[in-house]
Write a structure and sequence with these properties.
- Pfam families: F-box, FBA_1.
- This is F-box domain-containing protein.
- The chain is mainly β and about 270 residues long.
- The protein contains five helices and 16 strands.
- Strands 12, 13, 14, 15 and 16 form a five-stranded antiparallel beta sheet that branches. The chain has a four-stranded antiparallel beta sheet with strand order 4-5-6-7, with no helix packed on it.
- The termini are far apart.
Length: about 270
């Protein structure tokens, strides 16, 4: 029967199926399994038309909790608590970001960092080893997750500060991009990088992903008049389509504040 229906139409039909049916359809034939597991389908899958948009929320109740809440007139009563795969609970994982119904998490196994892109609806997860900068030394990577606006290809951006022996000298940034469609890391299309005086938030938790770009709260270190150093807050963005870093300056009233900033986008 399926041979009489164009494959593109089959894909559109399956995008509208409930999750339970979609999981069962992965075992019908290799072509359907390949389609459902493909990055393009994973990012475009939107469940049934009758389903409202959901908000993904995280909070701490002795341990990290994750919940999906329907963004409609029932808010906040229609909620689904998300349960991570049991094997992942064995690790101390971090949430890197979420976009288009996908979650990106990471954890360390020995000294190797591993990133996970997880579709919570169809319970499909893909792992990617996060490479270290050549040279043998283990550096602290800053990771960001998003989806390309044009290709809907999920991407992970990794930026690594490489410090010299002298702590007073500025860092040199090294950037790589992982694309789900190829399963490989490469240099970004655009070679521009954050300025060497930029410092990211210690825990990288001040981050927002919206409309195909990610925004980090960062600090710009500079020499002070008294011979010391001061930090002015700024925002560093990365466009997942152009693969380009940019800097968004904050007004003086915010850039010089010493309190903890909360980064959000309305």
């Amino acid at each position: 029967m399926s041979d009489n229906i164009p494959f593109e139409m089959q894909m559109e039909i399956m995008k509208k199926l409930p999750v339970k049916s979609l999981i069962q359809f992965r075992s019908v034939c290799k072509a359907w399994k390949s389609l459902i597991d493909s990055p393009d389908f994973i990012t475009q899958y939107n469940g049934q038309h009758t389903n409202p948009q959901h908000l993904f929320l995280t909070y701490c109740d002795y341990e990290d909790k994750y919940v999906s809440i329907a963004d409609d007139h029932t808010f906040p009563h229609h909620k689904v608590h998300l349960t991570f795969p049991e094997w992942l609970l064995e690790y101390d994982y971090d949430l890197i970001g979420c976009s288009h119904g996908l979650l990106c998490l990471s954890y360390y196994e020995d000294q190797t960092r591993i990133a996970i892109i997880w579709n919570i609806l169809i319970r499909k997860a893909i792992a990617a080893l996060v490479p270290n900068v050549a040279g043998g030394e283990v550096y602290k990577n800053v990771l960001g997750f998003g989806v390309c606006r044009e290709t809907t290809d999920p991407k992970i951006v990794k930026i690594t500060p490489i410090r010299s022996q002298s702590a007073m000298e500025s860092v040199t940034w090294h950037a790589e991009v992982f694309t789900l469609s190829t399963g490989t890391w490469r240099s970004p299309y655009n070679g521009n990088l954050p300025r060497s005086s930029i410092e990211f938030d210690s825990y990288c938790d001040q981050v927002v992903t919206i409309d195909g770009s990610i925004y980090w709260l960062a600090a710009d270190s500079m020499a002070d008049v008294d011979g010391g150093f001061r930090f002015d807050y700024t925002i560093i963005s990365f466009d997942f389509t152009r693969e380009e870093f940019k800097e968004v300056s904050l007004p003086d009233s915010l850039a010089h504040q010493r309190y903890k900033h909360i980064l959000s986008v309305a």
